DNA sequence: GTGAAAGCGCTAACAG
DNA sequence: CTGTTAGCGCTTTCAC
């Protein structure tokens, strides 16, 4: 049996309350007493029981993190941002993969709440009414990271996805491209589908270019789907001269698919990705892409959560981080 | 205030014990009673408090995972394997990044133990004496994943790194290569340095090829360090005709560095990586690499941990998973 | 500056 | 099949 606070108290010849005070750094303890207690702790190899502490204090110093897939290079980076800030504020993280599955997500929220987490960072697809209902019932604060809440009911941290894509496409139209392909995620996906698609259409419209359905392909975010998509694009009667993809991995696929069929990037085809994951510099030519500050989104979300957990006043409920276009080898001109 | 088991008991007109029984699926409850309790739970929106349960039952259904860096494509894959199996066995995961820093690692072990985790999966560099001492004090089982314990004191899941590298190098020598470069991790790293280096030397020796110091460069596992290393290798009086790298990312760097200087892979230079992360098929030519079952290493570690946690008999304390060489475009011949 | 005592919400004998 | 009763190990008033 591990020694308890009671054992330490006895060993040190003081009360449990006093031991508790020194363990928690309460200054109202005479230095001599503190010393005695510390010695007893050392002698016994006492290790405070955080579960008991949690029950008594109603705080677990643990936050829940719901993430679609930790093995994704995209989410893993976000997770790292979250974890670093959590550590900084002395919180631990319970990490759960949801695979963006609504049932799982809702179930996980519940599990985390049962475990008495002090807050939750949620990353997922869309916040549906069912999600919202569940989240509203949460006795602890929830922050959405890289996740759109159509009603802006919950605190969230994002970039302006629509504008970001608009920037990317506008960059391309300014270079004179008239036929710009878009390799999108499923349109139901609020960020990678809907928002980005909206940015694409908006930019075309602003440039006075007619929208053509042929030029939009729905991918599944994988390299393979990029390879496949270029094939389809290139077999068009009027193939695109530039392609934008909603993530970097598909962009690599597009580059490779183009090269496989003897085309060269950026001469024959310019390519712009999205995210600026580490992949972007791990291709030749290097990938021009929209920089989304993944780590920061995670870090800021967690920081925001700490504010809510401490019941601090928060000025902005919905934070929007800056993005920019990083021009590299897969596009011709320098921006 | 959230309703407690006591509130539910009162609402349903039964005792706490009965409520506890239905919540825990104990069959010794009359169906009628069960129904009443369930209804009360529903009505009150009761959510069991896992912390209280943990205190009373001395089980947290939570396991700790110490990982060097979750944002690494390598470890993220391991983590996913761990998490999936944990979920399967109804455990949650407290995830902690250690950056392979010994002090952090030891501190994290302690924190996890304070939080009363039921077990720990540890991934890290080396198990030093200090680590061992700390781990020995753990009241709960610990399993090492992709981590070498020189004394084989703790349960672990790995592949035979030395043999795996030997296989890769032997494949190259069999193709007639006499000068094979190795882009290694720091030699102090027990797996990526020491073990792999040993496999390299062994294979050369078996092939009757003299070892040459020029042909070993220490990298830092990044793409850039691969690019840089080829530069150095190629400026040698007698440059290597094939290069083995201890991870895939450096291999991509090697390929790109070679291509940047006008060489073609595999014609002018053959390249073999290690890990078979998703990167391997995201380059041109695609990367021949040693397949290490990352997800499985994570999954098996977690499975092993569940056995220890359940006090089941375990036949093999130290498990060694199979590896193989996947031949792709960066080497000439098919194996 | 220190101690006594009452819980925190639940499980786990033990009775009945 | 159900209820009673101790705790689990700690925090937190409230006294002194």
From TrEMBL, chains A, B:
PROSITE patterns registered for this protein in UniProt: HTH_LACI_1, HTH_LACI_2
Stretches assigned to the HTH lacI-type domain: 3-57
GO molecular function, one term: transcription cis-regulatory region binding
InterPro entries the UniProt entry points to: CcpA, HTH_LacI, LacI/GalR-like_sensor, Lambda_DNA-bd_dom_sf, Peripla_BP_I
SMART domains with a match to the protein in the record: HTH_LACI
Family matches, as Gene3D superfamilies: 3.40.50.2300, lambda repressor-like DNA-binding domains
Keywords: Activator, DNA-binding, Repressor, Transcription, Transcription regulation
The keyword DNA-binding belongs to this UniProt entry's keyword annotation: yes
Role played: Global transcriptional regulator of carbon catabolite repression (CCR) and carbon catabolite activation (CCA), which ensures optimal energy usage under diverse conditions.
NCBIfam families attached to this UniProt entry: ccpA
Protein name per its UniProtKB record: Catabolite control protein A
Organism in which the protein naturally occurs: Shouchella lonarensis
């Amino acid at each position: 049996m591990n020694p308890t606070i009671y054992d330490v108290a006895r060993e040190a010849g003081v009360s449990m309350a006093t031991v508790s005070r020194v363990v928690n750094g309460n200054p109202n303890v005479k230095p001599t007493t503190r010393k005695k207690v510390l010695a007893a702790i050392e002698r016994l190899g006492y290790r405070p029981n955080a579960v008991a502490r949690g029950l008594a204090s109603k705080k677990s110093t643990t936050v829940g993190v719901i993430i679609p897939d930790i093995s994704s290079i995209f989410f893993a980076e976000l997770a790292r941002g979250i974890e670093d800030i959590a550590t900084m504020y002395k919180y631990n993280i319970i990490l759960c993969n949801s695979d963006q599955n609504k049932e799982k997500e809702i179930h996980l929220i519940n599990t985390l709440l049962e475990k008495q987490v002090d807050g939750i960072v949620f990353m997922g697809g869309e916040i549906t009414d069912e999600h919202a209902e569940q989240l509203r019932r949460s006795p602890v604060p929830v922050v959405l990271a890289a996740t759109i809440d159509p009603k802006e009911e919950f605190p969230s941290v994002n970039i302006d996805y629509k504008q970001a894509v608009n920037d990317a496409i506008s960059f391309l139209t300014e270079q004179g491209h008239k036929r710009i392909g878009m390799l999108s995620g499923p349109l139901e996906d609020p960020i990678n589908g809907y928002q980005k698609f909206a940015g694409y259409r908006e930019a075309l419209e602003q440039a006075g270019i007619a929208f053509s359905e042929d030029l939009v392909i729905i991918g599944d975010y994988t390299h393979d789907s990029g390879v496949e998509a270029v094939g389809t694009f290139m077999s068009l009667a009027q193939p695109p001269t530039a392609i934008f993809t909603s993530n970097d991995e598909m962009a690599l696929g597009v580059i490779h698919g183009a090269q496989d069929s003897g085309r060269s990037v950026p001469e024959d085809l310019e390519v712009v990705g999205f995210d600026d994951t580490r992949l972007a510099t791990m291709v030749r030519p290097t990938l021009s892409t929209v920089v989304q500050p993944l780590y920061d989104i995670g870090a800021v979300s967690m920081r925001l959560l700490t504010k809510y957990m401490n019941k601090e006043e928060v000025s902005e409920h919905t934070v929007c981080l800056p993005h920019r276009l990083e021009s590299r080898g897969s596009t011709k001109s320098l921006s």
